[in-house]
Design the sequence.
């Protein structure tokens, strides 16, 4: 008798193969049988009318701190994620010398927009080395499995001290050797990879560039050789990918013999650069290297509301004068005080933020309910205001004041240069890309993309109206079997005997993402965006039900994933 049998569900198995109706048996945390004549189970679940899907493997998150204090790992657990990988973009919290934690907090606050007060209050820092950090993660209960990468910024600062925070400083031979030793040690202890940042967009909270921005070839070569000696791990990089930059990353892949994963997205300043990068990825793979581009599934955009970190009026003197009021009191004041509203709308401060917002309104949209992440360009705030004969700043404020000040604007700043998601579709269907970039756990009060796994299915396999979609089978594989395999986690992401019983039962007809909302539930009362999902009937991790009808069951079977995992023998 099986532990669990899931009956007559429509199986999309994570390989990209066509869906089929079958029963699925689970024993001892593993899938034990898939077919039409499976014997009885101690627990039987009727999945007629439901999709039976692998648990999502989200390889690009920033739960480095949250994983130590939040066993529920929200919002990701609401969206069917059963394994997550953090330590991306060269930032994280190990290794760390006693007394130097504030630097890593400052770096994470600036690069990933997680308030320093939240991190300082939430993280115990009861480790120094990266292996010790892994031990802490391994001893902490949670709903999902987690894996961590060694961040370049922390490694550099640990070895070089204050000099390591300056990207212009070149490490000595001894310092490179020590960084390499520590990286190899960490990979052998179970780190899933090594990450770095080479983009000017990444700055610490004090405005200084990320320490790995311009790491020279000699430093990267030493770290690549450490990865070759360890024989395990992925090299993940967030880079501006300008002329010649990909060649430096390719050289690292060649020296290390390890897979390379780079972020691939469209930026307004160079809207066709992603095509050049994708071609270079294709050529590298044709030459025998292992390289993938991590792609998103919708615009990367800033959410702006009257309680968020950024909105069109956040630098206005009249707005700042309301700082002592509660959010509710501010809304009432603006609605009742006509002179205050006129000041906010008609007086334009001569500052950088206001000038940026003037440009942003040309590309910003009202975030509807349910949210539309592929709005038509005719619906920008500027164009709507023109049609209505209304001042665009007044229209923006009117939207933000809706629902007692809970209205939102969406400012897409990447993946939306042409006013549609057609380029995103091109990225998604390419065999050299995998799903990533959700950034769950980061940008807590500006961006809310932890719902990527759900939106990927609803928009692209069912709802898209402004162009072609993508098959459900291909999309499921893109964020299960393929993401798992990209990190050598060959024991999950596929529904077949011997694989981990990480499973989602989904009512695909009702599957949807809700409108984002602000919650004040981080340590120290910090605020963050959350976004829930509808349609996940049940989620299992290692055969244990962790979610039922959108609610946590109180079970915590999640474990630390240490290093690559072998493919089951079928």
Sequence:
């Amino acid at each position: 008798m099986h532990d669990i049998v899931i009956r007559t569900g429509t199986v999309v198995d994570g390989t990209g193969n066509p869906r089929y109706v079958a029963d699925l048996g689970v024993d001892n945390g593993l899938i034990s049988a898939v077919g039409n004549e499976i014997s009885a189970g101690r627990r039987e679940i009727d999945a007629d009318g439901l999709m039976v899907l692998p648990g999502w493997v989200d390889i690009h998150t920033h739960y480095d701190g949250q994983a130590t204090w939040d066993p529920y790992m929200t919002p990701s657990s609401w969206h069917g994620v059963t394994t997550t990988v953090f330590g991306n973009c060269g930032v994280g919290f190990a290794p760390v010398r006693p007394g130097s934690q504030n630097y890593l907090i400052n770096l994470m606050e600036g690069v990933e927009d997680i308030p320093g007060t939240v991190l300082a209050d939430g993280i115990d820092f009861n480790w120094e080395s990266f292996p010790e950090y892994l031990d802490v993660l391994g001893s902490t209960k949670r709903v999902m499995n987690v894996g961590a990468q060694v961040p370049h910024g922390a490694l550099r600062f640990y070895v070089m001290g204050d000099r390591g925070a300056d990207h212009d400083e070149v490490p000595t031979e001894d310092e490179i050797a020590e960084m390499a030793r520590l990286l190899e040690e960490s990979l052998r202890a179970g780190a899933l990879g090594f990450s770095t940042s080479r983009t000017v967009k990444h700055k610490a909270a004090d405005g200084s560039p990320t320490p790995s921005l311009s790491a020279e070839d000699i430093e990267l070569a030493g770290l690549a050789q450490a990865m070759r000696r360890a024989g395990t791990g992925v090299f993940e990089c967030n880079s501006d990918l300008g002329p010649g930059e990909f060649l430096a990353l390719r050289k690292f892949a060649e020296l290390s013999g390890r897979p390379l994963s780079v972020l691939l997205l469209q930026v307004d300043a160079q809207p066709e650069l992603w095509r050049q990068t994708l071609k270079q990825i294709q050529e590298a793979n044709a030459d025998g290297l292992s390289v993938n581009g991590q792609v998103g599934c919708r615009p990367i955009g800033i959410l702006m509301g009257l309680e968020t970190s950024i909105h069109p009026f956040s630098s206005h003197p009249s707005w700042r004068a309301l700082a002592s009021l509660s959010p509710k009191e501010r809304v009432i004041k603006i609605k009742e005080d006509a002179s205050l509203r006129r000041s906010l709308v008609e007086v334009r401060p001569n500052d950088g933020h206001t000038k940026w917002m003037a440009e942003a309104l040309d590309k910003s949209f009202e975030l509807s309910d349910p949210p539309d992440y592929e709005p038509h360009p005719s619906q920008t705030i500027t164009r709507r205001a023109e049609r209505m004969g209304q001042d665009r700043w007044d229209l923006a404020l009117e939207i933000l004041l809706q629902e007692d000040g809970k209205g939102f604007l969406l400012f897409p700043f990447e993946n939306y240069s042409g006013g549609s998601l057609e380029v995103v579709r091109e990225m998604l269907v390419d065999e050299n890309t995998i799903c990533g970039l959700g950034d769950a756990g980061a940008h807590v009060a500006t961006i809310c993309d932890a719902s990527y796994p759900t939106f990927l299915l609803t928009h692209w396999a069912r709802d898209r109206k402004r162009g072609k979609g993508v098959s459900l089978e291909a999309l499921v594989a893109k964020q299960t079997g393929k993401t798992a395999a990209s990190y050598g986690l060959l024991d999950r992401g596929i529904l077949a005997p011997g694989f981990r019983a990480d499973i989602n039962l989904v009512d695909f007809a009702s599957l949807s993402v809700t409108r984002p909302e602000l919650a004040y539930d981080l340590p120290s009362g910090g605020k963050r965006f959350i976004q829930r999902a509808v349609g996940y009937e049940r989620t299992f991790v290692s055969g244990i039900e962790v979610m039922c009808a959108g609610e946590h069951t109180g079970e915590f079977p999640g474990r630390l994933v240490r290093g690559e995992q072998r493919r089951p023998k079928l």
